[in-house]
Amino acid sequence: MKDLLTFNFGCTGTGSENGPSTPSTVVRPAWAGGLTEIVEMLHHARTVATFFVCRHIATRHPDVIRALAENGHEIGLLECKHLHRPPAPQANGRSKANVFTELHLSEYRHVVEDACGMAIRGHRDRFYSLERDAGAVWTAFGKGGIAYDSSVLPLAVTKQGIPVLPRFPFRAVTGPHRIIEWPVLLVRLFGRWFPAAGSYLDRLPFWT
Description:
Blueprint: E1 6-9, H1 32-44, E2 50-53, H2 55-60, H3 62-70, E3 74-79, H4 96-116, E4 122-125, H5 134-143, E5 148-149, E6 170-173, E7 179-181, E8 186-189, E9 192-195, H6 199-202
Parallel strand pairs: 1-2, 2-3, 3-4, 4-5, 5-7
Antiparallel strand pairs: 6-7, 8-9
Helix pairs in contact: 3-4, 4-5
C-alpha cells in the first residue's frame, strides 16, 4: 500500500453484489465531486494513496478508476461480500472459504484490472470480516497473485475479529505465495482498544 493512506471506494445500498448492477447496488455519480476534492488534496500534498475499489464501481465507471491510477494512486480490490465462511471441509479436503475465494477472486480481480490498466496486488474486505479459516483464504490469495491483504480486525468486536493476531502488519503466508496482512488500525482510548477505520467508524458508538 502507498503511504499507508487508503480509501474504500465501494458499493452502497441494499442490493446484492452478485446480482445485477442496479442503482441501489452502486454509488451514484454524486460522489464524483467529493472524489475530485480528495484527489486534488492528495495532489497538493504530493501524496499518493491506495483506493480499494469494488468491482461494480470498476464496471460502471472505468474512466474514474483509470484516472486514479494515472495520477499515481494504487488500486486494490474491495470485496463487498463477507469472506467469512464456516470451516466445513469439502470432500477434497478444501474448506468453503478456500473454494469461495478461488472461484471469485480471479473474476473480481480481472474486472478491476481492466478498468485501471494495472495489476492488482492488494485486497480488502469491506467489513473486515475475515476470521475463521483465515489461513485458507490467505493461501488462496497468495496463489491468485495478491501480495497483501487488509481484512482482519485484531480485536473481538460484534462477534467478529481475531484478537490473537498482531496489531501490526505481519507475514500471513510464507513460501512462494507469501502474503502480508495489514490489520485494521486500532487506537487506545480510555484504557480500551477501538477500531479506527472502515465501517466501524460509521457504527460508533453502537458496537462498544
